[in-house]
Amino acid sequence: MIPRRRFLQAAAATGAAVSLPAVSALPASAATRPAEGAVTDLGPASVASPLGNGEFVGDVLYMGSRGLDPNVVGAWDLGTDSIAEHFEITTGIGIWAMCKVGTDVYVGTHSRSDLYRIDTVSREVSKLAEYPDHFIWTMAASPDGKIYMGMSEPGRVVEYDPATGVSRDLGQPAPGEAYVRSIQADDTYVYAGIGSNAHLIAIHRQTGEKRELLPAELLDRDWVSSMSISDTHIAGGLNSTAELVVLDKADPTKYRIVKASAAGEKYTVAVLIHDGWVYFAGRPTGTVYRVPVDGGELEVLGVPFPEAQTVRLLEHGGRIYGLQDPGVFVYDPATGSMDYASHVQRGFRAAAEAPMSVHSDGRVVYVGGKSGADLHHLASGEVTRLDIPGEPKTAITVDGTTYLGIYTQAALYAHRAGDAEATLLFRTGHNQDRPKDLAYDRATGLIAMSTQPEPGHPNGALNLYDPRTGKLDTYRPVIERQTVFSLTAVAGTLFLGTSTQEGLGSPPVTPTAKLAAFDLRTRTVAWELEVLPGIGAVMDLAHTPRAVYGITNTGVLFEYSLVERAITRTLKVSERGGDLLISGFTAYTSDVNAVYRIDLVPFTAKKIVDGLASDWFGGGSRLNIAPNGRALYALKERNLISVAIHPRLG
C-alpha cells in the first residue's frame, strides 16, 4: 500500500507538478504597506487530480477527473503502465458519469450537463448534446448501444441514441424526487436508483411503464446511490445505512439485505456484480466487501486506502479495479492480493481544482479541497499537502491549533502547523454530513460547529466540543426545520444565522432565515427573530463589542445592537452574500467577482477589488482574514490571492 502522502510529489519527476511563485512576508511598516485593495497572487490555490469515474476499453483504463479546469480523461495503458494520453472535456466542473459502447467512451459532466464521446480509435472528442439539468450524475449503456443518463435536479432519466443523435426524455421515475443517483439498463428495462427518498424504479424501455422494485421495508431509506446488474440479479447500494440489497430480476420479491460490517460505515458508494459475487465499497471507512450473489456470508476484502471514496468498481482481466481520489486499487480474487496504483505517478494530469474553503493561522493559509488541504507557507512560498479523508469546508485557529470541519461525516479534525497529519476529534452523527461554520467562545472554552443534515433529512445540528476534555454535545434541532449556517460567539452567547435549507433535495418548509442567540451555559435558545422577510440564509456572522453583524444570501448587511437588542441598521452591499470578516470597526465581504469594505460607524460600503471571477466549488464565495488584520485571502479564478487592507482600528 502506498503511503498517505501527496501524489503530486511523485508527479514532479514526470513534469506534471505545478510550480508556485515565492511569496514574501507582508511588510511590517504601515508606511511601506501596499494600498488597500492591492492584490498579490500566491499561485494555484489547491492542486489535485481527483477521479470521478472510469471505463475500460481493451487494456486501457479511461479515467475522468473532477474539479479540474479543464477536466480530462486520462488513458492508463496497462501494458506500458503509464498514462498514454489525455482527452480534454472543456465544459462542466467534473466528470461524474462514464460508460462505453464498443470502443467509444461516453462522458457526462456536472454543472453544466453535457454529453461527450471519445472515439478511442480516431482519438477524437465530440460534444454530442447538452441538457438543462444541474448535472449528469450517472450513466449506463444498454446491450443494444443506447445511452441512459440519470439527471439530478430534477431527477429524471434521459435516453440518447448514438445512431441518430436524438435524446428522449423518460421523465421522473419518482415524481418529486430530485436525484437519480444510479442507473443500469438491459434489453428490456432501465433501472433507476433514486434519492433523497429511496426508490428503485424499473422503466420499460419501449412503453415507459414504471414499477417500484425496492422492497417496502427499505422505502424509508435515503438513497439507492449505486447499482450493478447481471443477467439474473440487481444489486443496489443504500445510503445512509451502508446496506446492499440484492434482488432476483425474475422475481424481485426474492431479495436479501446485507449490512456493511465496518464500524461507522454509512454509505455504499460503488457496486459490481462479477463471477457470482457482488463487490461493493463503503464510506467513510473505505472498506471493500464482497458477498455471494446467491447467498452466503459477507467477506471483508480490506481497506486499500483509509477513508477514501470509491467512485467506480470495474472488472478487467479477472481483477477488480476501484477508482478513488488518491488512485486505483486492484484486487485479485485468485490470490486475494490488494495493490494500489497512483494515477498521478503514472502521468495523470494534476491541476488547480475549484477549492472549498480558505483559512489563515498567520503563518500558513489552508485551502480546502478534495481529500485534504493545500498549505501555503507565507514566509517561504512553499506549498505542502495535508491529507484528510473528506473535504474541509470550514476552519478556525484557537491557541495554535487549527480545527477543520470535514464533509461528508460532519467531522472535526485538529492540526498544528508543522505536523504531518491532522487528528480526528469526532464525527457528529445525528444524520449530519456538511459542516457550515466554526466559532470559539473564550468565556466557556467551547468550540461550536454547525452542520447541515444529510440529503433528504430535516433539521441541522449544533455541535459543542470542549478541547480540554474531548466532550461533544450535539443539539438537533436547534432552530426547528432549519440549518445553522453561520456562528459568532460573544462572552458565553453563541449567535446563530440560519438557512431555510435542510438536507439537500428537501424543499424548505420555513419561509425565512433567522438570527438566534444560544446560551452556552444553559444550552438553550434564548431568542430567535426573522431578520428580513423572505431571505433564504444568513451566510455569515461577525461581531464587535457592541453589535453582531450578518450578511444575507441577497447581499444585505444587518446590524443587531447588543445594547438595544434589536436590528438597528441594514445596508445593501452586493447581489449575493459571502463570508463576513471584521477587524476593528471595518468589515469585509465578497461575492464571486469583488471584495467590499464596509465602514461600520457611518455604515457605508465600497468595492476595493473587482474582476476576480473566483471559482469556488459549489459557486459560493469564501474570504478569510490574516490574524494581524493586514490581509484578506480570496481567489482570483483558481489562484489564491492576498488582498491588502487597512481597517479602522479605533
Automatic annotation (TrEMBL):
Keywords: Signal. The keyword Hydrolase does not apply. It comes from the Bacteria. Residues 1-30 form the signal peptide. The keyword Methyltransferase does not apply. Gene3D superfamilies: YVTN repeat-like/Quinoprotein amine dehydrogenase. This is TAT (Twin-arginine translocation) pathway signal sequence.
